[in-house]
Write a structure and sequence with these properties.
23 helices; about 75% helix; rod-shaped
Length: about 425
């Protein structure tokens, strides 16, 4: 029977997986001592051996298996007729193991048959229950996997961190995020070392459950425990931002940038936006501009407008006008040209402003009356009174601007008269 033992162990090792489970205590009526006694009785129960007839079939199967004839070995086991419940359970367990990777549904079925009477040795029964859970996880039967792991834990009385991790994974797959938190906490508590994938699972559960403050605290632990993992710094900055804690978000992203962890377009777009959220508009614009020039952030209307608007907020109107103009040229964007005109107007570059406003009007800008009002100012300060008058008369067509336009018109006529310009 030594070869049989070797086959049994080899087959069990072949499909041992990293899966997990959820501990459910025994009945409330059962004391801890009673439960421990029951488990000890299972461990101490007398080992059984298969009958001679079954043993002969198993020997044939072992020989075939050792000759790399797994299918033939499986066929021998399937044809084996047994005369006792123990023999049947033992053979079914080996059949189930051989079906793994060939037909997992049959593997699960035979392993469940083997475990149902609870007459295998403690070690074989324990590994069978665990393997059922592993296969159910593989096949996507997550609720059944939870139940299988529960049976394993109740049978053995053991609590293992990897089992808890697997059950947390099953809950995550079912999108039962709150249910995943307790088992992953147990996995973390039982683990002999910090395991990054365990923390990641907890983070996924808390994100999924929209428990963002708790997720933030987990990330604060993760950047300390796993400082070389770049993504956790970025996620930490993101979770702070989700809670509108912009100062902490910026601090986290600055550390990530110093460490060289910010690399992608998404990283630097958030970094720049975090500067903007902290009213550091110049740094926001410069970050976007530098990374666009470096090719990290592709040039697009969105990024050009972001650069321009942040330069405008920083009162860098010439730079704002430059990037508004580039955005406008990129896609014949009337709104970008309108904003370019306003930026030029702010630094008294009236001729440039007029060019930009006229381009916006040509491109059918929204609310053209507002643009005509801006044109009025530009022409007026250049003492181009006829053009200013024509622009303000266009603006008067909009009832919301009529009163303002009439005041401007009177003012233009008065100034033109003073300058000897006949309107």
């Amino acid at each position: 029977m030594t070869k049989l033992t070797k086959l049994s162990s080899a087959l069990a090792m072949a499909f041992a997986l990293t899966a997990g489970s959820f501990y459910v205590p025994a009945s409330l009526a059962e004391t801890a001592a009673q439960q421990q006694q029951r488990i000890q009785e299972r461990k101490d129960r007398r080992s059984q051996v298969v009958t001679e007839r079954t043993g002969r079939s198993l020997s044939r199967a072992i020989d075939l298996y050792n000759e790399d004839k797994a299918q033939e070995a499986l066929q021998v086991l399937l044809e084996t007729r047994t005369s006792s419940d123990f023999d049947r359970a033992f053979v079914d367990r080996l059949i189930g193991q051989l079906y793994v990777g060939i037909d997992n549904a049959k593997a699960i079925d035979y392993l469940q048959r083997a475990a149902r009477p609870d007459i295998l040795s403690f070690t074989d029964q324990s590994s069978t229950l665990e393997n059922i859970g592993n296969l159910l996880i593989q096949e996507g039967h997550y609720e059944q996997a939870v139940e299988a792991y529960r049976k394993w834990m109740h049978f053995t009385g053991e609590q293992r961190h990897d089992i808890y991790f697997r059950i947390a994974g099953a809950y995550l797959q079912m999108e039962q995020y709150d249910n995943a938190v307790q088992p992953i906490d147990r996995a973390l508590a039982l683990s002999d070392e910090p395991r990054e994938n365990y923390y990641q699972a907890k983070l996924s559960a808390l994100y999924g459950a929209q428990r963002i403050p708790e997720a933030t605290r987990v990330l604060e632990q993760m950047v300390t425990l796993f400082p070389d993992s770049a993504q956790w710094w970025f996620y930490l900055g993101n979770t702070y931002q989700m809670q509108e804690d912009f100062q902490k978000s910026l601090s986290a992203l600055r550390v990530a940038n110093i460490l060289g962890y910010l690399e992608t377009r998404t990283h630097f777009q958030m970094f720049g936006q975090t500067f903007a959220n902290n009213e550091m508009s110049f740094k926001a614009a410069k970050t976007f501009e530098d990374k666009m020039k470096a090719g990290v952030i592709p040039e697009s209307r969105q990024i050009l407008m972001a650069i321009a608007s942040n330069y405008q907020a920083a009162r860098e109107y010439a730079k704002a006008a430059e990037f508004y103009g580039r955005a406008g040229q990129l896609d014949n964007d009337a709104e970008a040209f309108r904003r370019q005109g306003e930026a030029y107007l702010a630094i008294q570059r009236y001729r440039n402003a007029i060019t930009a406003f006229n381009r916006a009007i040509e491109l059918n800008v929204d609310n053209p009356a507002r643009v005509h009002m801006s044109l009025t100012s530009a022409h007026f300060y250049l003492e181009q009174y006829p053009q200013a008058l024509a622009a303000v008369q266009q603006a008067r067509r909009d009832s919301s601007l009529a009163r303002q336009a009439r005041s401007w018109e009177d003012y233009i006529r008065e100034k033109a008269k003073q300058k000897g310009v006949n309107l």
